[in-house]
Amino acid sequence: MAKKKVCDFCLSEGGGLFNRLETLSDGHHMCKDCKKLIQKYNLPLKYDLFQQLVTAQANMKDMIMDAHLENHDANDALAEYYPFPSVLMHAGEHCINSVEATITVDKNRIPDVPAVRSIQAVQKGSIHNIRDASGDGETETVKGTLYETEAALYFLSPYIVNCHRLGYMKRNTGDTDRVVVVTPTKTFTYKIEHADLFFLRERFYQKVNAVRHNKREHLIYITNDNQVRITPGVYDIPKSLRAGRYTVKAIKDAGLHIRDPLGRIKDYYENEDYIDLREGGVLECTGEYQLKWIGDKFDEE
Known about the structure:
Radius of gyration: 22 Å
Order of helices and strands: EEHHHHEEEEEEHEEEEEEEEE
Strand order of the largest sheet: 9-10-17-12-15
Structural class: alpha+beta
């Protein structure tokens, strides 16, 4: 009996009139649902990393990223998936994301003088940081490009330049049509397509960068019994850090990622009040943080 073909993306079986599989040029098979989803994200129809990620179940995405880096060189992944954009950047910056975006602002706040047109030209004096419209007067929707690097989030448009610390981006919101930045005094809402892919690209970049910097050679600097500083690395709980609740202060805010004992992933950034580290879980650090243990009580599941 002939072996049934399966979709290489979602692993569903092909067959019958309504579930025929398409054979790609590289020999992989794709069902019509995965094809439609990949096309929705404007990705090429081929068997590659981000095509696998957008068609995968949520609990499989991190495993797919990890498996890819176990079988591919991190520097090759950086070159393949994070090429230099057409706009000039500051020395040493890598472009993680570059997407068309809009922000709706108060019309009277838009400057009359044209803004700088490259990331390289963005300096303190050229940043406007014009927030979301207040709702009190005439508004205008400004079109531009949202760029993310490991240093900052930039919005470049003909008359407005906004620049934000990465830690102020809201994550884990479930939004797929916007990137929201919340600072202590302002909110910025950038409408984009496929925000989930935006954050998948960010997450994979952090993993690539961690591998490139030997993330398993981590260091813990103990300040006192309740306070430690951690560098990029993977920390098993409670082998490396005792279980409990910690407040977080960023020294270099490039991301903390918790895998709980059930395998669920949650990202924590500088705007989070605390993190819960439970026994049997794993803390993956891609920045540098000061952690202060404040007790062993956890949030209700």
